[in-house]
Design goal:
This protein has about 325 residues and is an alpha/beta fold. Helix content is about 35%, strand content about 25%. It is globular and about 60 Å long.
């Protein structure tokens, strides 16, 4: 079975979507929404040539009738495109964050309810990481006991000359919670199997960028079911000398802990094991998984319900940082 896929935009993480198209035998790239000037960018990442370019998603849908729409746009613009695709009965996979406002989230939920056979996913790529898969395996197998608390960090260099203008505009990017630590908020819930209950959060701009349009760091405390907790932080103050992102995660349980970092091994210390975990699980590209699940009639790695709960939680964390108030994530 082959699915036709159309693409909207070539923003920050579009290469992951295009890479998945190339890896999957079930996807046929049939059209692009954007400018002719974008052609060189996407043709450098896919083998398909002479793909037609359309001015709007409606035009792509009318002319090519794709089964799946991939979206990698300015974050604040994605919600409207997702709704357009879902209302046309198309499956959707997007860059992160899925959207940036509560209004757009409710519109997406309504479109999914009206089109219950459609599936929507997002590039939550920690689910495609051998390190984080190893953390999940250990926790789900009970190797560290019941989860007590978690710590996660996602940090990067600022790169003002390399990143797009909109990445420095809060209303366009969603800020550090939606742009950065959304990965870790998802991963901790996925690893532990626990939902979030409430949060307090803080974001600021210490480095002197325009406070009204950019925050360079955030720290958040999220309470989970059963009394477990997560402290998650994100920032864009990693020095160039570090040569990459500085990402870390530790999961502490009643019988031990397991941790990973972007430049180190997976380490586990528990009742039956102490040291480096070397038998890391094989990753599975999320775009390939999405296509395979559609073909098999099964749920993809990231389900609709999981994604809606995640966006509810992340918007709640963002709202907590904006209001300096504790937010009940079970009520959002």
């Amino acid at each position: 079975m082959t699915f036709k896929i159309g693409m909207v935009g070539v923003e920050q993480h579009a290469p992951y979507l295009f890479g998945g198209m190339e890896l999957s035998e079930k996807l046929e790239f049939v059209g692009y929404v954007g400018e002719e000037s974008d052609r060189a960018t996407f043709e450098s990442q896919v083998s398909t040539r002479d793909v037609p370019i359309y001015p709007t998603l409606n035009d792509l849908i009318d002319q090519q009738d794709p089964d799946i729409v991939g979206i990698s746009m300015i974050s604040s613009q994605q919600g409207r495109q997702i709704v357009t695709a879902l209302e046309s009965g198309k499956h959707v996979i997007t860059d992160k964050p899925l959207l940036t406002t509560r209004e757009d989230l409710e519109s997406v939920k309504a479109a999914l309810a009206a089109n219950p056979t459609t599936r929507v996913s997002m590039m939550l790529t920690l689910r495609d990481s051998p390190q984080y898969l190893a953390l999940r395996r250990a926790v789900q197998n009970g190797e560290i006991g019941d989860v007590v608390n978690c710590y996660a960090k996602r940090s990067a260099t600022l790169r003002p000359d390399a990143r797009p203008f909109w990445a420095f505009e809060y209303d366009l990017s969603g800020g550090p919670i939606l742009d950065l630590v959304i990965h870790d908020i998802d991963a901790v819930s996925w690893i532990t199997g626990l939902d979030y209950v409430s949060t307090v959060s803080y974001q600021a701009n210490v480095n002197g960028h325009s406070p009204e349009s950019f925050y360079d760091h955030s720290q958040s405390l999220l309470i989970m079911e059963g009394g477990a907790s997560l402290i998650v932080e994100g920032h864009r103050n990693v020095p160039d000398s570090y040569q990459g992102m500085d990402n870390r995660m530790t999961i502490v349980g009643t019988k031990g802990h397991i941790e990973c970092s972007s430049k180190g091994p997976v380490l586990q210390f528990s009742e039956d094991f102490a040291g480096e975990v070397t038998d890391l699980p094989e990753p599975r590209h999320l775009v390939v998984d999405f296509a395979d699940a559609l073909a098999a009639g099964t749920e993809p790695t990231i389900t609709n319900n999981e994604l809606m709960r995640l966006m509810d939680a992340c918007l709640g964390v963002k709202e907590a940082s904006e209001t300096d108030q504790r937010v009940n994530l079970q009520a959002t």
